[in-house]
Amino acid sequence: MSRRLLLLGGGYEQLNALRIAKELGAYVIVFDGQKRAPCMFEADEYYQVNIKNEDELLTAATQVNAQAVFVHAAELAIEASKVTAALGVPGIPILVAQAGTDKAVRSECLKQSGIRVPAFQSLDRSASWSDWQHSAQNLKFPMVAKPTRLAGAKGVELIPDLDSLEKYYQNRSEFTDQDFVIEEYIRGLQLSTESVIVEGNVKCLSVALRHYDTTQNLLPYQIEDGHSMPWDNTEKYKEDISDITSVAARAIGMQNGVLKGDLVLLEDGRFVVLEMAVRTSGGRFCDTVVPLSSGLNILYPLLKMSLGHTVAETDFYATHTNGVSQRFLLVPEGVPLKKEKRIQQVLLQKDVVGSWFREDIHALDRAPAIKSHRDRLGYVICTGSDRLDADRKAQAVVRELHNAIVKVEAK
Q1: Over the stretch 372-383, which tens digit does the pLDDT of each residue have?
Q2: Which positions ≥6 away from 155 have C-beta within 8 Å?
Q3: What 8-state DSSP symbol labels residue 221?
Q4: Residues 115, 107 contacting (CB under 8 angstroms)
């Protein structure tokens, strides 16, 4: 009989996980907070469940008799660990999920293990302005402020001076039930990594170059303009990154699962770890960009582990090397947009292999503020002969999209 796999989250990005789980013979049950979501139409069973409400989630999970639990491209490691613990099925222990999700706890774990992280100060939600000022004295400007348990760069801001820090403090109630971290701002080349850990060992490692070259006008918000592969120096630094990931896995307590890293390569060749999360990446890095670039799709071994299947060494083999780039459509806030946006016409190009746009994009008459990754208008993914070729193509398509949606006002 098929194992009953519970997929937490039923959005567009979760569709690949659902489809692969069904390929592996699973009977897939999907929980999502929305009455209707993309996975609803392909799931064997679909239920509207408030995943962030622990009692509601655990009650619903028990009722559907789930035998396995999976999360992809969502900050739900803690919720998933509570479900697996309650059901007695394989999963990440709750303490590991917490250590790999809470930014303050994670940074402390990594620091204690000897991994270089930005200098940081933790502040709980009840901390006073005096507490924030005192903590800031232990760092230097510019610094970065962030809530400890939000994803997608929500609430992550560059803080250039004390006045900006006070403004952030005054607006902190916007982020409900959050503690905070302020940390040293690290300059350098930014990389995304993703690794599968099996019995405490790093079985594979993917590395992509993160793009921030087009988002300086969006400051103080720390917005990424996608990523591209393969990074030119992957082989040179792969062993170093793998060693860092191994130490991070031990520090967090991860024995079996995935670690998603954000690293900065300094001019002296050393790495600083900004993040090492216990979840698969969103933004199509895990399920689209890496498979297109290398042929490696870690959703297969991760789902196999969840379902109790045997994981083979071949599940971790790369089969080819192609250039792939994801780039975002980033339009400054308030710019007028065309009523008729001919997006599909632009996408009819042979090198465009993936795209996504906000559901409300055709209804927008002006560009909204971009304060987190969820606010971006859309993206394209292009392939090329190498990373630079793919990146050039993706940026060219984005320029065409900009012309297709932005209204040129008469002078």
Answers
A1: 999 999 999 999
A2: 145, 146, 147, 174, 175, 178, 372
A3: B
A4: no
At 169, give phi and psi (nearest 5°).
-60, -45
* CB-CB contact of 99 with 109 (8 Å): yes
Tokens encoding 179: 């503690």
Q: Which two tokens stand for residue 20?
A: 């692969």
370's tokens? 């971009």
Based on C-alpha coordinates, what's the Rg of the chain? 21
Tell me how far apart the alpha carbons of residues 49 and 56 are, in angstroms, rounded to a whole number. 7
Joined together, the tokens standing for residue 320 give: 């080819």
d(CA 358, CA 374): 9
pTM score over 0.90: yes
Report the distance separating Cα 302 and Cα 300, nearest Å: 6
pLDDT in tens, 286-342: 999 999 999 999 999 999 999 999 999 999 999 999 999 999 999 999 999 999 999
Say if residue 192 is exposed, middle or buried (CB neighbours under 10 Å; 0-12, 13-18, 19+).
buried
| CA 340 – CA 407 distance, rounded (Å) | 10
Contact 208, 291 (CB under 8 A): no
The tens digit of pLDDT for each residue in 164-184 reads 999 999 999 999 889 999 999
